[in-house]
Design brief:
Distance between the termini: 60 Å
CATH architecture of the largest domain: 3-Layer(aba) Sandwich
Shape: flat
Number of helices: 7
CATH superfamily of the largest domain: Glucose-6-phosphate isomerase like protein, domain 1
Order of helices and strands: HEEEHEHEHHEHEEH
Strand content: 5-15%
CATH class of the largest domain: Alpha Beta
Radius of gyration: 24 Å
Number of domains: 2
């Protein structure tokens, strides 16, 4: 796994925190200094936490489990949607539906409803209902797609959550903590890092900062997925060789059996 580059993080503005008056004292260990009334995050500690989080993310991905990304703030949603989609991991970039985790069975029903509507389009059901009813159903389908489309392949609770702004996504944090689901997150100087299992001290408002941290997380996940694929390929190759050896042995033994 590549080590985060200090200069790149500096250029991305990862070190810029909030005004001193908005700070959360729990972030004190990660604050380097105050400049013009603004807290500056210690990037050396950011790098250490990024590496720690990266190893854990790679391991989860390698195990075949899912990591859900949560980023509903304007400056983060497009970045997350674009980059996380490359890993086939679920993400929430629209409103967080209450009970997404704690009432997962109900959320799954809503996802299945999308599939049901899709089936209605092809099995002739739409031919037997009015145009108005059809329009209402399709509007409902579009609404479900906006909020749940990115998690349609999630058949069980995610193994972890990666959150961009824990103050904004406080409901997601609360649900994850209730279910003991590990959390990864950017923690700015106005947040409580103790609420997160893998806090990454970073500016969670600037687009470039968010992009830098999300890109690193996605690369870690890709590495884990790559290792998983490599392991599977090795297992398949070993099984193929074992089968080939077995066939050769059977052929070698066949003439001996005929001779007897």
């Amino acid at each position: 796994m590549s080590k985060p580059n200090y200069e790149d993080l500096l250029k991305a503005g990862v070190h810029f925190g909030h005004l001193k008056k908005k700070w959360n004292p729990a972030m004190a260990p990660y604050i380097f200094m105050e400049r013009n009334g603004i807290h500056i995050i210690d990037l050396h500690k950011t790098i250490a936490k990024m590496e720690e989080a990266g190893k854990a993310l790679a391991q989860i991905a390698k195990s075949g489990k899912k990591i859900m990304f949560v980023a509903t703030k304007k400056q983060a949603k497009d970045i997350v949607a674009k980059k996380v989609a490359e890993t086939n991991m679920p993400f929430v970039t629209e409103r967080w539906p209450g009970g997404m985790l704690t009432n997962f069975a109900t959320i799954r029903k809503a996802v299945r409803k999308m599939s049901l509507i899709d089936k209605m389009e092809t099995d002739g059901t739409f031919d037997n209902i009015s145009k108005r009813e059809r329009l209402q159903i399709m509007r409902q389908r579009a609404k479900l797609e906006r909020t749940l489309g990115s998690i349609s392949d999630l058949t069980r609770l995610p193994a972890a959550l990666f959150i961009v702004d824990i103050n904004k996504e406080h409901i997601a944090i609360k649900e994850a903590r209730k279910l003991n689901i590990p959390t990864f997150a950017l923690v700015d100087t106005n947040t409580d890092p103790k609420l997160v299992d893998f806090p990454i001290p970073a500016n969670d408002d600037a687009t470039k900062s968010i992009d830098a941290i999300i890109s690193f997380a996605v690369d870690a996940i890709k590495e884990g997925l790559g290792e998983r694929k490599a392991d599977k390929d090795k297992q398949a190759e070993a099984a193929s060789k074992a089968e080939e050896k077995k066939e050769k042995k059977a052929k070698a033994e066949a003439p001996e059996a005929e001779a007897k």
